[in-house]
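Quick one, T. Sequence first:
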Amino acid sequence: MKRMGIILTLVAAVTGTSVFAQTSAPAPAAATAQTATISGQNVNVRSGPGQAYYSCLLLSAPATVQVAGETSGWLKIVPPQGAFSLVSKKYIKADGASGTITGTNVVVRAGSDLTPNRMDQIQTRANMGEKVTIMGEVGDFYKIAPPQGAYLYISAEFVKGAGGADLAASATSMPTLAGTNSPKRTLADLGVKPTPARRATSMPSLAVITEERGSFDAAEKALNEAYAKPREQRNLKGLLEQYKNIKLADNSPFKPYVDARVKFLSDEIELAQDLSTAENSIMAMEAKRAVMQTERERMKADMPNIPLRKTFVVEGELQPSGLYSGGAVGPKRYTIGNAPLVKAYVQSSSGAIDLDKYVGQYVGVSGTPKYDEKSGMYIVEADEVIIMKPGVATGSMVPSTTPPATPDVPAAKPAAKPADKAATKAADKTAPAKPADKPSAPAADSADDAPAPAPVAEPASRPAAPVNPQEYE
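Structure tokens:
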């Protein structure tokens, strides 16, 4: 019809005439749909311009359709009564028989009661806020009245009154001028070369489509069976080759689906390779950890079995004290240290520990230390004495004090030569000495009077309390 308008414009330019007597009815504007009549019975109205597109409904004479265009022998028509479109329920807010589009660029598909398993043909797209009429439901889709911009197709062979012989004739010859006997003039007569019509791409034949569908369905079945297995048992490369080997025509409707599967499987293979690399790294780390654990166990086995050593209050060589020999003056005390220095006194007031058997031994003593201001030294009430090997001492917990000016046991003077026996007997007859009111000081370790030990300076402050004697290393 647009071609007719161009022809009339050219004729007017050549003849200067604005009014013509036409041999056919005036052509409507290109944007205006024309009414056409169905000339056959049970004519398929399809979702696209070709037999490969699925049928949406059937029409029979004398039904009419509104033709909006033509593509390679197929008329684009406004969906007739009984046609419907499909939109995902996710993008429609339903309110009874009315609905509102809630998304942007929402796909509107051609629906069909004849082939309900087909809904892949896109008719148009809807946007947020647009109103639609809901006609029913099909699974996850709403059936809606076809919106503006949605079209179906029917073969021009079974339609009269639009796109048929009349239009073809008017496109190849010019109308006769009114009131003249001039012959018909063509575009060639006017020196205008018509632009050849663009060749429309035709769909593959039904036999080709059927073969492609069979190959695609077989590949899909193999894919579903593979993904029912554990990941490591899936033959992804074999599946990829199966999809790549499907023979498709250039304009096959299955091409986008096959291409999508090829991309999906390629991505899955790449992901599987990444996972395999990660798993190999983890296995290598676990193996290295096992080697390290074995090495630790070997080192532990080779390590000498050294018992834990108890921490003592004081340790050193034990010797009897020459000043505190026991009796009325108190319990017998022993010195402990490394001669000639004395670290502390050790005693067992209860006698539970026989300290005599440890004399001359290098020992460790556990017990309760108490600072004696009179002697300026610690006195340890022994709870336990352990014989130790010389040279393993780690140091006493008792604070060291300033060593006395003289050793605890002063050197003894040679004993005086006794007198003759007569003199001795005379001495024995002398009257006994009057006992002192107060107990006398402890006797010296020697026969003669021993010099008094140098006084120990009073410490500026009381030594810090010792560490808990029960603590272990």
